[in-house]
């Protein structure tokens, strides 16, 4: 039985390019982001990987990334579930602000705390801990049961919603996962044994 889970952060978005806090705002991919997603699909295809079901967030950049990946795999009609439980961390009052402007307004140290602490949210937004409390119950209820039933699953989502999943899968602390950088458009492939333990993890970086 093939217990396969692939996690992929969306390709570069228009607001990534502009160095803006994005969160639940809904910009699309840049040309570079489109190319990253297509390249991710080709790398998966080169490994002979295909999927039985897909999950993504309610945000355009993740959905577009998934669509491009599945197009490269010839699986454009794959069953796909879209849910805001997989959305990016909500940056609250920071959303839409240039990161340099935010540092000028609140100071380098405060913005660093909001971005890189595990449990301190920005004003009106979510910490990574808050994000995990939203993402992980959904993962436990919907995604992991599919994996353990032998379905090959791909999840196209966001840097922080995927950090929450990786923290759980790899048994990391909040401090460890905050330090983990997730490149745009790079699939991470997990294979599991019958107990749900990871037996293989592969980053498909270019």
UniProtKB/TrEMBL annotation:
Site residues (Transition state stabilizer), renumbered to this chain: 158
GO terms (BP aspect): gluconeogenesis; glycolytic process
Gene Ontology MF terms: phosphoglycerate mutase activity
Active site (UniProt): 10 (tele-phosphohistidine intermediate), 88 (proton donor/acceptor)
Metabolic or biological pathway, per its Swiss-Prot or TrEMBL entry: Carbohydrate degradation; glycolysis; pyruvate from D-glyceraldehyde 3-phosphate: step 3/5
Reaction equations catalysed: (2R)-2-phosphoglycerate = (2R)-3-phosphoglycerate
Binding site for substrate: 9-16, 22-23, 61, 88-91, 99, 115-116, 159-160
UniProt keyword Isomerase, yes or no: yes
The keyword Isomerase is assigned to this record: yes
Annotated keywords: Gluconeogenesis, Glycolysis, Isomerase
Pfam annotation, one family: His_Phos_1
PROSITE patterns tied to this protein: PG_MUTASE
SUPFAM superfamilies the UniProt entry points to: Phosphoglycerate mutase-like
InterPro entries: His_Pase_superF_clade-1, His_PPase_superfam, PG/BPGM_mutase_AS, Phosphogly_mut1
EC number: 5.4.2.11
HAMAP family: PGAM_GpmA (MF_01039)
Subunit structure, as described in the record: Homodimer.
Cited function: Catalyzes the interconversion of 2-phosphoglycerate and 3-phosphoglycerate.
Similarity comment text for this entry: Belongs to the phosphoglycerate mutase family. BPG-dependent PGAM subfamily.
Record protein name field: 2,3-bisphosphoglycerate-dependent phosphoglycerate mutase
Species the sequence originates in: Methyloraptor flagellatus
Encoding gene (name): gpmA
